[in-house]
Design brief:
Length: 349
C-alpha cells in the first residue's frame, strides 16, 4: 500500500514525531524529552511542559521528515495524540497537526494515546500479535486491561480504582529518595536489593480491576517502621535516614509486589478470555526488565517504544485507516484535546 504517516505526540513531557510506513516500518523516530528539566523538580510542571513543546515541536517534525528522507509530498496522512494528557501539552500537538493538515492538504487522524501505546506492539518487526488480543496498559497515568477482538476495537475489562502503576513507581521512588522518573530508578536500585526482605500486601480488588494507592502507603509505613519512626513522620524526610542497602531492598520488594499484582490480574484475564491468542504489554512501565522476565510469552514494545513517541501514534492511525475510520476535519471542535476519554469502568477507547 505504501502509506507514510507522520505521527505527532505531545501528551506529557516528550515532544515526539515519527514517520511510519504501512503501520509497521519506522522510517524515523524523533523524541525530545523534558526529563532533564523536570528531574530538578521531581515531577512535571504542566505550564513549563507546554512551553517546551512549543519550542521543540517544529524542529522535531522537520527532523522526523529529514531522517525519513521525506518531503511533505511523500506524507499520506498526519496523526496526532488528542487525549488523554496534559491539556496545554496536547494543545501544542493538536494545533500544530491541524495547521499542517490544512497547509499541506493532508488527512488528519486524532488518536487516543492509550490506543497508540498498544500499537507500539505492531512496530516490533515481523511477527504481529494475533487476535483476539489482551492488552495490559501500564503507564504513568493508566493501568488497564483491554480486550481487543480485532484492529481498532477495544473493550476496557479492567482498570485501576486509584493510582496508576507507573505513578506508584514514581511515588515510591520519591519516598526512597530516588530521582524522577521513578520507574527506571527503582528498577536500577532493585538490582542490588533483596526482593524478599519486606513483605508488602496485595490489594483485594474484585474482578480484573487494580488498586495501587495502598501499595504506596504500605511502602511508606514499612519504611517508617524499619527506621523506628512514627507514622506521623513526614514522608519527604525518610530518605535522609535510609541506607543504600535499605533503599535497594525496598525498591526490590516493591517492584516484585507490583509485578506480582499485574501478573495475577493478567492471569485472571486470560482465564476469563480463553479465546485470546496474544497478550501485549504497553506503556512506560513495559520497559521494566523484571516485568519482561515475568511474562516471557507476552509481546513487549522495544524499550525505546515503551514510553511516549510519535511512531506508535502513526501506527495506531494506520490501523484506524485500514479499519475504515474517516479522517477528522482539521477545523472541527472535536479534535480539541480532551483530558480523559472513558478513563474508568467498562467502555471503549
Ligand atoms: N523501567 C521502568 N520500570 C518501571 N516503570 C517505568 C520504567 N520506565 C518508565 N517507567 C514509568 O513509566 C511511566 C511513564 O510512562 P508513559 O510515558 O507511558 O506515561 P505517560 O505518558 O506519562 O502516561 P499515560 O500514557 O497514561 O498518559 C512513569 O511512571 C515511569 O516511572
Ligand atoms: Mg504515555
Amino acid at each position: 500500500m505504501d502509506m507514510k504517516i507522520l505521527g505527532i505526540e505531545t501528551s506529557c513531557d516528550e515532544t515526539a514525531a515519527a514517520v511510519v510506513q504501512d503501520g509497521t516500518e519506522i522510517l524515523s523516530n524523533v523524541v525530545v524529552s523534558q526529563i532533564d528539566i523536570f528531574a530538578e523538580y521531581g515531577g512535571v510542571i504542566p505550564e513549563v511542559a507546554a512551553r517546551s513543546h512549543l519550542e521543540a515541536m517544529m524542529p522535531v517534525i522537520r527532523k522526523a521528515l529529514a531522517d525519513a528522507e521525506c518531503t511533505w509530498d511523500d506524507i499520506n496522512a498526519i496523526a496526532v495524540t488528542h487525549a488523554p494528557g496534559l491539556l496545554g501539552s496536547l494543545l501544542i500537538g493538536t494545533l500544530t497537526a491541524r495547521t499542517l493538515a490544512i497547509l499541506h492538504d493532508k488527512p488528519l487522524y486524532a488518536v487516543h494515546h492509550l490506543k497508540s501505546h498498544v500499537y507500539a506492539n505492531w512496530l516490533t518487526g515481523g511477527h504481529a500479535p494475533q487476535f483476539p488480543v489482551l492488552a495490559l496498559v501500564v503507564s504513568g497515568g493508566h493501568t488497564q486491561i483491554l480486550y481487543m477482538p480485532a484492529h481498532n476495537k477495544f473493550e476496557i475489562v479492567g482498570t485501576t480504582h486509584d493510582d496508576a502503576v507507573g505513578e506508584c513507581f514514581d511515588k515510591v521512588a520519591k519516598i526512597l529518595g530516588l530521582p524522577y522518573p521513578g520507574g527506571p530508578a527503582i528498577a536500577k536500585a532493585a538490582l542490588n536489593g533483596d526482593a524478599h526482605k519486606y513483605k508488602l500486601p496485595h490489594p483485594k480488588v474484585a474482578g480484573l480491576d487494580f488498586s495501587f494507592s495502598g501499595l504506596k502507603t504500605a511502602v511508606l509505613r514499612a519504611v517508617q517502621k524499619e527506621l523506628g519512626l512514627p507514622i506521623s513522620h513526614p514522608s519527604y524526610d525518610l530518605k535522609n535516614h535510609l541506607t543504600a542497602s535499605q533503599v535497594a531492598d525496598f525498591a526490590a520488594s516493591f517492584q516484585k509486589t507490583a509485578i506480582e499484582i499485574l501478573c495475577e490480574k493478567l492471569t485472571a484475564a486470560t482465564e476469563q478470555y480463553p479465546d485470546v491468542q496474544s497478550v501485549v504489554i504497553a506503556g512506560g512501565v513495559s520497559a521494566n526488565r523484571a516485568l519482561r522476565d515475568a511474562l516471557p510469552e507476552a509481546y513487549f514494545p522495544t524499550p525505546a517504544l515503551s514510553g511516549d513517541n510519535g511512531a506508535m501514534v502513526a501506527a495506531a492511525a494506520y490501523y484506524e485507516i485500514v479499519s475504515g475510520v474517516e479522517p477528522t476535519d482539521p477545523y472541527a471542535l472535536n479534535i480539541y484535546p480532551r483530558i480523559s476519554v472513558e478513563n474508568t469502568g467498562t467502555g471503549t477507547i
